[in-house]
Design brief:
298 residues; alpha/beta; Metallo-beta-lactamase, Chain A; seven-stranded mixed beta sheet
């Protein structure tokens, strides 16, 4: 078996271009001068025939149409076998409503994330005769799809925006934000699209991995503030930035990982411009910046 990952969407919530954003990146994407990117989602397979999708993006219909590996093989039959959610954010769960069309698959998530779905009656559109909802405990190993096992683990993060109260803790450790450890025939891959900080236990966990797909939301912490788009920093949103002494590039310098891939880039992130200085700096440090349609094989 060959471990395959297919990037369905490389951007953070809102995509590139975001519908109401006039930032430099969004305008360049509208003009066709840089590649547009849909919202965060990735598909994994160990045999090339059966696939699991991690995070159901609002753009999932378009994403699956553009990914030949997910095209139907018969009437009402797709290679999709399971969906796994890493948090309850809108850009990771809204696509479930597109997957309501009488296709059998298993929906994996922590108990807390499943409860978020259960509390919203619109997700009852997922017919239980077709969609099995399976609750996964942290650090429990389970079969995600044939030949591919997975294990969920807590990473620092926060609750979804729509569940925030007056006070927000952005580095919670629990079931609300998880990373995924994927294994297939001795290969180890980690998918961590949201992470507020690099903790020693996370560093130890990913050491020696064949590939890590990691949170690439912002280039710098005050990026959106500097752009005049928001008063929220990356830390306030529960995301590490790429640059800086507390950023992910610095954090990974002394971690042995065979392949490092940034995913979940916000529309303001300058690395989305292929010829930007920031993109060159990222690539010089051995990182790949994901893009829609990128397929990675181990």
């Amino acid at each position: 078996m060959t471990f395959r990952a297919h990037i369905l969407g490389a951007a953070a919530g809102g995509g590139l271009p975001q519908w109401n954003c006039g930032c430099e990146n969004c305008n360049l994407a509208r003009a066709g001068e840089i590649p547009a990117q849909s919202q965060s989602s990735v598909a994994f397979s160990a045999n090339g025939d059966e696939w699991a999708i991690l995070n159901a993006s609002p753009d999932i219909r378009q994403q699956m149409a553009q990914a030949k590996v997910l095209h139907p093989t018969d009437l009402r039959k797709s290679p999709l076998r399971s969906v796994l959610l890493t948090n309850g954010d809108i850009d990771h769960v809204a696509g479930l409503l597109t997957l309501r069309e009488q296709q059998a698959f298993t929906l994996f998530a922590t108990t807390e994330i499943h409860q978020v779905l259960a509390d919203n009656p619109i997700f009852a559109a997922l017919n239980p005769n077709y969609v099995s909802r399976v609750q996964i405990a942290l650090d429990e190993e389970f079969e995600l799809v044939e030949g591919l096992t997975a294990q969920l683990f807590a990473v620092p993060g926060k609750v979804p925006l729509y569940l925030e109260g007056e006070e927000v803790q952005t580095d919670l450790l629990g079931e609300q934000t998880v990373g995924v450890h994927l294994r297939s025939e001795g290969k180890n891959v980690y998918y961590i699209p949201g992470c507020a900080a690099m903790r020693p236990e996370l560093r130890d966990r990913i050491e020696g991995a064949d590939m890590v797909m990691f949170d690439g939301t912002l280039w710098q912490d005050d990026e959106m503030v500097q752009a005049g788009l928001s008063q929220k920093t990356g830390q306030r949103m529960g995301h590490m930035s790429m640059s800086g002494e507390d950023g992910s590039i610095a954090a990974f310098k002394d971690i042995s990982v065979a392949r490092k891939v940034f995913v979940h880039m916000n529309n303001t992130n300058p690395v989305l411009r292929p010829r930007s200085d920031q993109r060159k700096a990222v690539e010089a440090e051995g990182w790949t910046v994901a893009y829609d349609g990128l397929e990675l094989t181990i």
